Amino acid sequence: SLLFPHLDVRRNVAYGARGKPIDDAVARAEIVALLDRDVRTLSGGESQLVALARAMASDPRVLLLDEPFAALDPPRRAAMRRMMRAWQRERGLTVLHVTHDVNEAALLADTLAVLDAGRVLQSGAATEIFARPGSARVAELVGAENVLAGVASTESDGMIALHAGRLTIHAIGERTDGPAHAVIGADEIVLSRDAPVSSARNSYPARVVALGANGSLVRVELDVEGTPLVAVVTRGSARELGLAPGAGTHVSFKATAVRIC
Q1: 118, 160, 167, 231: which sits with the fewest CB atoms below 10 Å from its CB?
Q2: What gap in Å lies between CA 104 and CA 241, rounded to an integer?
Q3: Closest CA to 146 of 100, 102, 108, 182
Q4: pLDDT at 53 over 70
Q5: How far is CA 133 from the centre of its chain?
Q6: What pLDDT was estimated at residue 172?
Q7: CATH 2.40.50.100 location in the chain
Q8: How far is CA 156 from the centre of its chain?
Q9: CATH architecture of 9-109
């Protein structure tokens, strides 16, 4: 257990505070109603919140958090992420936060280290790693939906063409010709009924394979000339486009939306 079973919630938090006030930590972790509870009666999520409050009450200079929100329900998890980010910024605190949750890392991290099987694959500014993953594996670990293997070649106009099966993807960047991967964010892919009139260098007919709702968004799995792609659209757009398994649609995305690695 994260908590001392012989102490109630109030005394668990006070133990971390070492005589300092606990009101702020208790309020931020939203555990006021739990203070007189026996810790052995707490749920997993409640125990995590009490442990978090105890850590915050200790007035740390450096804080290590290992999956601190894993047992919380989604609304509470989102609230605690926002709270932790605000508290860390207010105090200028260094937090080493371990998580498997990509959304959590995106919201909380200034500096990110991506680990796989005990090895650091890439580290640096979080915004840079999410925008420019250094390898296909890093792209997968930071949540990229579309990571396509192929062979890259430099075109006469200096752009890069990546040949993935029957699909040729155009991109901008510097890359030695040869085996490579294209990384495309699902939110960078535009769906339309017909081929759009636009400057997008990548434009293909596609077939809808499956749909999955996620709140106000719809995840659209596509077959694009034999290559699987994933796009994300709003529910309203999905209705307007008549998206359904087996339906035809058109896919387009700009060359600047493609990361070659």
Answers
A1: 118
A2: 32
A3: 182
A4: yes
A5: 13
A6: 87
A7: 184-253
A8: 36
A9: 3-Layer(aba) Sandwich (3.40)
Q: How confident is the model at residue 157 (pLDDT cuts 50, 70, 90)?
A: confident
* Per-residue DSSP letter, 218: E
- Is 10 strand, coil or helix? helix
Dump pLDDT digits (tens) for 61-113. 999 999 999 999 989 999 999 999 999 999 999 999 999 998 899 889 999 99
pLDDT number for residue 1: 64
Question: Which residue type, as a one-letter code, is found at position 87?
Answer: W
**Positive or negative, the Cα torsion across 16, 17, 22, 25?**
negative
Q: What residues are paired with 207 via a beta bridge? A: 223, 248
In three-state secondary structure terms, 220 is strand
Helical ranges in the chain per DSSP H: 9-17, 23-28, 44-57, 74-91, 102-108, 126-131, 136-141, 235-241
**Residue pair 67/99 in contact by the 8 Å Cβ criterion:** yes
pLDDT surpassing 80 at residue 174: no
Rg of the chain over Cα atoms, rounded to whole angstroms, equals: 23
Q: Where are the beta strands (DSSP E) in the chain?
A: 62-66, 94-98, 111-116, 119-125, 146-154, 160-164, 167-171, 178-184, 190-192, 202-214, 217-224, 227-234, 248-253, 258-260
Q: Tens of pLDDT along 183-208?
A: 999 999 999 998 888 888 899 999 99
